[in-house]
Amino acid sequence: MQQDKPIADLSSDEARDELARLSKLIAAANRAYHSEDAPQITDAAFDALKKRNAALEAAFPKLRRADSPALLVGAPASEGFTKVSHSLPMLSLENAFEDSDVADFDERVRKFLGHESSLFYTAEPKIDGLSLSLRYMGGKLVHAATRGDGAVGENVTENALTISDIPKKLKNAPPVLEVRGEVYMSHADFAALNARQIEAGDKPFANPRNAAAGSLRQLDAKITQSRPLKFFAYAWGQLSEPLARTQFEAIERLASLGFKTNPLTSLCAGPEAMLSHYHLIEAQRATLGYDIDGVVYKVNDLALQARLGLRSTTPRWAIAHKFPAELAWTRLDAIDIQVGRTGALSPVARLTPVTVGGVVVSNATLHNEDYIAGRGAKGAAIREGRDIRIGDWVQVYRAGDVIPKINDIDLEKRPSSAVAFVFPKVCPECGSVAHREEGDAVRRCTGGLICPAQAVERLKHFVSRGAFDIEGLGAKQIEMFFTDSELAVKAPADIFTLERRDAANPLKKLKNREGFGETSVKKLFAAINAKRQIPLDRLIFGLGIRHVGDAASGLLARHYATWGALEAALTQAQEGNSAWNELLAIDGVGKVMAESLVAALQNDTERAAIDALVAELDVVPVIAITPVDSPVAGKTLVFTGTLEKMSRAEAKARAEALGAKVSGSVSAKTDLVIAGPGAGSKAKDAGKFGVEVIDEDGWLALIGQA
Ligand code: IVH
Question: Which of 148, 355, 357, 550 is 20 to 30 A distant from 620 in Cα terms?
Answer without folding.
Answer: 148
